[in-house]
C-alpha cells in the first residue's frame, strides 16, 4: 500500500453490518472522522468480516477479522509475550466424564460452585471460544486511536463483554489512545463483570455517551464523560435507491413494521410466544380491515440467528392479507433501508436503530421495548414514553391504544420531531469535535 495517510484509526466493537444499526454506526463514525481527518486510513475490526461488503463504497476502509480462528494452545505457543487468556475451560464436563454419578446428584449445585470459583481463578473464563488479542497486535500498530462502536456492547444482556475488554486492554498496553463513541452503558448484573468494565473505562481517554441514564451512572462512578447523541441520527437515506411500493398502497395510510424472532427468544418467555404472535396477527389484520392501512415490513438485521426476513414472511402469511403487506425482495444496506422506512407515515419498531431510522426522518414511531435504551431514546426524542410498549406487554389492546394515541397527536408529533431531530443531529456532531480535541 503506497498511499500515504495522515492518520490511522482502528474501530472495534463491531459485530457485523448484517445489523443495519451497526452499519449505521460505522458509517456515521467514519463520516465524522473524515470531516476532521480526510486523508486517514480506517481499519474496521469485524466479528463477521464477510458481512462488510455493504461498506465497499467507503474509501480507505480496511476490514479485518476480529476473531482468532486458531485454537488457544496454538496461540499460546506462538504468542507467549502477549499474555493470551486461556480459552474457557469447562471443568464440569471434565468431572462429568469421569464420575458419572456426580452429574445426577449435583447437577445444579456443583456447576454453581465451580462457576463462582472459576470466575476468580481462570483467566478468560467468560470469554467466547475465540481470542482477539493476538490477531490484532499488528492491526493496532501505528494507530493514532482505537475507537469502540457498537452502542450497547458493554451491557451483559448478550453475555459478559470480555471480547471488547480484551481488545481495549491491548490498546492500553500498547499506549494507544482509546475512545468510547456514543454508548449506552448500565450496571452489569454480575458484580465482578461490573467492576471489570468500570476498571477498563477508567483507563479510556475519551468516553462519549448517548443517554442521560448512562451519563448519570458513569458520573456517579467517578468517570469523566462527554454527552453526545447516537451517530445514526446523522445517516442520510439513499435517495437514489430504486424503491417503489406496490400500487395498492395508494390512498392508504402506510405503516412500517420492523420485527424479529430473535427478540422473542431472548426477551419474551417461550410460553408467551404463541400469544404475542397471535396478538400481532390480530392487530395488523384490524389495521388493514378497519383503518385503511397498508403495511411495509422492514428487515433490519440480515444475520441468520435473528431471521428477521423469515419472521416477517411467516407473520405476513399468518395475517393473510397479501395485497396489503409489502416485504422488499432485495436485501438493502442501511441507507437504502432508511430510504424504505422514509416511505412510511408511521412506524412500529422492535429494534433500537430501526426506531432511529424512522424518528430521524420525522416519522412518528411506536417502540416495542426490550432494553432500557428504548426508554432513554423515547425520553430523549419525545420527552415521554407514551409511544413505548414493553415486550412483555405486547397485546392487541396495548398496540391499538398506542396507535390511536399516535394518530390523534400526529401533527403535533411531527412538528416536535422536526425540531428535536435537528438538535440531536447537532449533538451527534459533537462527537467529531471531541475526538479532534483528543487526537489533535
How would you sum up this structure, described in words?
With 440 residues, the protein is of the alpha/beta class. The chain folds into three domains: 8-69 and 130-227, NAD(P)-binding Rossmann-like Domain (Rossmann fold, 3-Layer(aba) Sandwich), CATH 3.40.50.720; 89-123, no CATH class; 247-422, Glycogen Phosphorylase B (Rossmann fold), CATH 3.40.50. Helix content is 45%, strand content 14%. It is built from 17 helices and 13 strands. A seven-stranded parallel β-sheet has the order 3-2-1-4-5-6-7, sandwiched between helices. It has a six-stranded parallel β-sheet with strand order 10-9-8-11-12-13, with helices on both faces. Helix 9 links the parallel strand 6 (206-209) and strand 7. The chain starts with 7 loop residues before the first strand and ends with a helix.
SSE topology sketch:
Layout (H helix, E strand, L loop, with lengths): L7 E7 L5 H17 L4 E6 L14 E5 L6 H7 L12 H8 L1 H6 L3 H13 L11 H8 L4 E4 L13 H12 L3 E7 L7 H11 L4 E4 L2 H9 L5 E2 L25 E6 L2 H7 L5 H18 L2 E5 L10 H12 L5 E2 L7 H8 L4 E4 L2 H8 L5 E5 L2 H10 L6 E3 L5 H13 L1 H30 L1
Parallel strand pairs: 1-2, 1-4, 2-3, 4-5, 5-6, 6-7, 8-9, 8-11, 9-10, 11-12, 12-13
Helix pairs in contact: 1-17, 6-7, 11-12, 11-16
A few lines on this structure:
The chain is built from 17 helices and 13 strands. By secondary structure, the protein is α/β, with parallel strands linked by helices. It folds into 3 domains: 8-69 and 130-227, NAD(P)-binding Rossmann-like Domain (Rossmann fold, 3-Layer(aba) Sandwich); 89-123, no CATH class; 247-422, 3-Layer(aba) Sandwich (Rossmann fold).
Amino acid at each position: 500500500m503506497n498511499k500515504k495517510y495522515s492518520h490511522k484509526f482502528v474501530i472495534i466493537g463491531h459485530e457485523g453490518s448484517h445489523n443495519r444499526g451497526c452499519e449505521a454506526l460505522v458509517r456515521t463514525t467514519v463520516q465524522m472522522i473524515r470531516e476532521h481527518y480526510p486523508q486517514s486510513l480506517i481499519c474496521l475490526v469485524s466479528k463477521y468480516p464477510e458481512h462488510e461488503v455493504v461498506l465497499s463504497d467507503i474509501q480507505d476502509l480496511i476490514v479485518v477479522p476480529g476473531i482468532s480462528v486458531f485454537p488457544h494452545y496454538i496461540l499460546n505457543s506462538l504468542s507467549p509475550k502477549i499474555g493470551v487468556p486461556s480459552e474457557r475451560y469447562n471443568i464440569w464436563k471434565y468431572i462429568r466424564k469421569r464420575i458419572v454419578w456426580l452429574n445426577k446428584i449435583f447437577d445444579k449445585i456443583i456447576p454453581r460452585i465451580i462457576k463462582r470459583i472459576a470466575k476468580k481463578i481462570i483467566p478468560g473464563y467468560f470469554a467466547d471460544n475465540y481470542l482477539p488479542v493476538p490477531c490484532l497486535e499488528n492491526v493496532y500498530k501505528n494507530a493514532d486511536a482505537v475507537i469502540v462502536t457498537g452502542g450497547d456492547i458493554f451491557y451483559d444482556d448478550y453475555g459478559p463483554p470480555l471480547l471488547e475488554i480484551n481488545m481495549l486492554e491491548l490498546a492500553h498496553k500498547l499506549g494507544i489512545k482509546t475512545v468510547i463513541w456514543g454508548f449506552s452503558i448500565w450496571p452489569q448484573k454480575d458484580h465482578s463483570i461490573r467492576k471489570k468494565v468500570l476498571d477498563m473505562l477508567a483507563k479510556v481517554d475519551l468516553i462519549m455517551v448517548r443517554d442521560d441514564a448512562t451519563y448519570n451512572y458513569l458520573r456517579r462512578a467517578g468517570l469523566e464523560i462527554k454527552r453526545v447523541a447516537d451517530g445514526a441520527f446523522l445517516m442520510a437515506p439513499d435517495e437514489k435507491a430504486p424503491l417503489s411500493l406496490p400500487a395498492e398502497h395508494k390512498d392508504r395510510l402506510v405503516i412500517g413494521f420492523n420485527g424479529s424472532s430473535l427478540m422473542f427468544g431472548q426477551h419474551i418467555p417461550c410460553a408467551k410466544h404463541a400469544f404475542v404472535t397471535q396478538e400481532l396477527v390480530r392487530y395488523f389484520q384490524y389495521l388493514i380491515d378497519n383503518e385503511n392501512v397498508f403495511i411495509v415490513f422492514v428487515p433490519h438485521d440480515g444475520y441468520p440467528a435473528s431471521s428477521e426476513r423469515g419472521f416477517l414472511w411467516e407473520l405476513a402469511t399468518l395475517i393473510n392479507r397479501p395485497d396489503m403487506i409489502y416485504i422488499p425482495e432485495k436485501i438493502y444496506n442501511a441507507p437504502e433501508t432508511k430510504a424504505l422506512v422514509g416511505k412510511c407515515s408511521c412506524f412500529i419498531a422492535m429494534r433500537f436503530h430501526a426506531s432511529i431510522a424512522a424518528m430521524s426522518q420525522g416519522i412518528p414511531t411506536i417502540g416495542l421495548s426490550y432494553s432500557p435504551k428504548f426508554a432513554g431514546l423515547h425520553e430523549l426524542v419525545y420527552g415521554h414514553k407514551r409511544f413505548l410498549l414493553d415486550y412483555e406487554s405486547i397485546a392487541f389492546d396495548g398496540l391499538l391504544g398506542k396507535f390511536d394515541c399516535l394518530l390523534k397527536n400526529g401533527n403535533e408529533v411531527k412538528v416536535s420531531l422536526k425540531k428535536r431531530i435537528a438538535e440531536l443531529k447537532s449533538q451527534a456532531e459533537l462527537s467529531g469535535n471531541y475526538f479532534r480535541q483528543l487526537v489533535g
